[in-house]
Amino acid sequence: MTEEEVALAVKDIIQTVAPDEDVSSLDPEQRLREQIDLDSMDFLDIVMELRKLYGVQVPEEDYKELATLAGCVRYLHPKLAAKSLHCATSA
Amino acid sequence: MPELARVVITGVGLTAPNGNSLAEFRASLLAGRSGVQPYEIRHVGKTLAGVCHFDALRHQSKKELRRGTRAGSIAVYCASEAVADAGLDLARYDPQRVGVFPGITEHGNVETENEIAEVAKYQFDLSFWSHHHNPRTVANNPAGEVTLNLGLKGPAYCLGGACAAGNLGLIHGAQLLRLGEIDLALCGGVSESIRTFGIFASFAAEGALAKHAEPSKASRPFDRHRNGIVVAEGGCLYALERLEDAQRRGARIYAELLGHCVNSDGTDFVLPDAAGQNACIRGALASARLEPQCIDLVSTHATSTPSGDAIEARVVREVFGDGQRTHVNNTKSFIGHAMGAAGALELAGNLPSLADGVVHPTINLDELDPACEMRNLVANEPRNVGRVDTILNMSFGMLGINSAVVVGRPRA
Q: How remote is the C-alpha of B169 from its chain's centroid?
């Protein structure tokens, strides 16, 4: 996956977890929770989807890296570089 | 003992396999329209069920649906519809004085089975077990989802009463209203049981799961060829208030709760007991201060099992055998057995009789089993009996729990 594809993968997961939200215009540098309605259970859902879809384990001490879309891409790209994109939604 | 406050039903919110409002449900009951359809579930395969088709997104966001349970969604739909039907403005109530009390047969089986199926895809690596499992499976889940959805802050929990549960919510709501602990109850019963394979498999294992080539004919209480239960999902929550509050706000009153009884057979895990049922019905009549011959309509519990229906019919003969004006019907013949919702739905479908004097029938009664004979059993076609003042609604469940409520036109 390229960095763009990682961003797409993350947005797709967010769309699954927060199906009422518009994720198409997320500001990559702004905190996700300030832009859309996401709580701690949703955050655990995002981590779970990364595990199920891509086999990526995100340890609790790294959760802070996933606060923004850009942070997600920086943190996840090395782990997802060799994986292919699966999109469940049209995000 | 001081005179207790009178309690009335002012709103009905329901989803049944053959209707998503009281008007639709009643129309189906008068038209003989079944809600039983072919159904398939993991491990069991093809079977039959009563399936609801309400629009869940009418009252919930997609995220609420994703996080919650089917029972929670049914409860939210029914609660919101009951509030609207009663013409209630919840903003006028202290949210701490609104109670939510759904009866349930069971809760958590569906979510546990789903989670096991999911984690099995990952060789039972429990890092794939969902953090949603506990909030979905706690016994107050359906009630709690209603409070989250409507912003309510009063007592909200489920009454676990097997298949007698549909009356328990109503009874509990009335009790808290009489104690003055709440000002409004949203109460009745809900069930998501068709989503657990275990309930089908267990009924099949005891030879109590209905089979029929024509789904709409499978649930046939009192018929000689009945062969078991059709499992159904559904829900019905009532808006319940003290009579004086309802009158003050000029509410339409469907019925007054005149009496009730809950008791136990104390005899067997699954087999019903005629003496326990008889005592329960007589207890409800005593609490309503009515003689059996004063009941116009008996809404039976009968589930279409060979032994259960015959026992119940015997009890109806014992208690109501002499009553000329007492008519008898059954709702499971249309929708199957909606478990924790059954009692609440069955009462709801009969409430319009208090206004129109028409008793809906039990359907699929092609050849009456002589063991199930009852005077004035209304079979296959509705009957206009002129006037219905009182209804007795019975629900019985495993471990020998029995419940009965008596409702009537508000007395002057």
A: 9
**pLDDT tens for each residue of B205-259:** 999 999 999 999 999 999 999 999 999 999 999 999 999 999 999 999 999 999 9
Assembly ipTM = 0.93
Q: Which CATH architecture has domain A3-80?
A: Orthogonal Bundle (1.10)
3-state secondary structure of B392: strand
CATH number for the segment(s) B260-408: 3.40.47.10
For chain B, where do the domains classified as CATH 3.40.47.10 start and end? Answer: 8-248, 260-408
Q: Is B401 helix (H, G, I), strand (E, B) or coil?
A: strand
What spatial distance separates the first Cα and last Cα of chain A, rounded to whole Å? Answer: 16
Contacts of A18 in chain B (CB under 8 A): 63
Each residue's pLDDT tens digit, A40-63: 999 999 999 999 999 999 999 999
Fold that domain B8-248 belongs to in CATH: Peroxisomal Thiolase; Chain A, domain 1 (3.40.47)
What DSSP letter does each residue of B104-173 carry, written as one string?
A: ES--SHHHHHHHHHHHHTTTT-GGGS-TTHHHHHSTTHHHHHHHHHHT--S-B--EE-GGGHHHHHHHHH
> What residues are paired with B38 via a beta bridge?
B48
Which residues does B contribute to its contact with A (CB < 8 Å)? Answer: 61-63, 66-67, 122, 127-128, 130-132
Answer yes or no: are the C-beta atoms of B54 and B15 closer than 8 Å.
Answer: yes
Of A20, A44, A52, the CB nearest to B131: A44
Give the global pTM.
Answer: 0.97
Gap from B151 CA to chain A (nearest CA, Å): 17
Chain A nearest-CA distance from B253, in A, is: 38
* Mutation target among A21, A48, A53, A63 for the B interface, most CBs of B within 10 A: A48
